[in-house]
Amino acid sequence: MDFDLPWTEKYRPKTLEDVIGQAEIVERMKAYVKTRNIPHMLFAGPAGVGKTTAALALARDLFKEDYAQSFLELNASDERGIDIVRGRIKDFARTLPLMDVPFKIILLDEADALTPDAQHAMRRTMEMFSGATRFILSCNYSSKLIEPIQSRCSVFRFKPLTDHDMKEMVKRIAKAEKLDLHDEAIEALIYISEGDMRKIINALQGAAATGKKITKETIYKVSSRAKPEEIRQMLELALKGKFIEAREKLDKVMVDYGMSGEDVLLQIYREITSLDIPDRAKVNLVDRVGEYNFRMVEGANERIQLEALLAQIMLIGCEKEEQSRP
What we know:
Part of the RFC clamp loader complex which loads the PCNA sliding clamp onto DNA. ATP binds at residues 45-52. Pfam families: AAA, AAA_lid_RFC1, Rep_fac_C. By secondary structure, the chain is an alpha/beta fold. It folds into three domains: 7-157, P-loop containing nucleotide triphosphate hydrolases (Rossmann fold); 163-222, Helicase, Ruva Protein, domain 3 (Orthogonal Bundle), CATH 1.10.8.60; 228-324, Zinc Finger, Delta Prime, domain 3 (Up-down Bundle), CATH 1.20.272.10. It is built from 15 helices and seven strands. Helix 5 (116-128) links the parallel strand 3 and strand 4. Helix 4 (82-94) packs parallel to helix 5, helix 11 (228-239) packs across helix 15 (302-324) and helix 12 packs antiparallel against helix 15. The longest helix has 23 residues, at 302-324. The radius of gyration is 24 Å and the shape is elongated.
């Protein structure tokens, strides 16, 4: 098995034709490649849906094999201040392109991490060097960019990948790596991914390191996630008033899967909608989860907070039982 490259890089699409799950965006980009001209672009959307990949594929389709000479990729979360704009970005933007495409491309990943001063300097750089350089700004939250930058860019909203798209990618990798991948394992990969393709590929590579045969148990182990049914059982025990058993179940999932308190809380939140309780009780549970999540973020002891949440769930269950009595 070839582990020379992380699979997130090894199986990254090389051209726009290979990009999955963003059909409308890919069609717009292909039109730009055909005319050999692009505007400044703003890629916005959740993590792991193909923003950086689409930018790299666009550059390869435009500049072919020598794309590295006319393409600069930077990550704004590494250098967030005004110096990065006045230094590397400005130096690259002011030089003339050496290829037959009349402009170069600067990809600024995580652009929403730039400081306000750096963003204003970026706006001025985009104005001055737009003849020779095009900017692609990639971010999770476009609202964090100043309005003058947003108005200069053609905005591309990347959607979360569908289950079908993720399954197709997983099957493609499994075939290339000759893995025996169960259908339940694919469903487990989609569950732990939360729409992020990188999480899926990293979990699949981690599972493949243990052997060719991959089951859902392997996926949950390597990704430090509990099986959904185990979290649901814990919640149902608490709702039935079996606090000690629910607490033991909590201990088991945290030890077996090496989960943090916030990991457990996130899975509890995801399982609330599947519980057989009235909507009002679900609303109360979501409210409680939000409260305890805030406490943990503020530094409270996660074990105490999780057990307190189980106690609150038990009280909600007892309240429901009392209301159902004649």
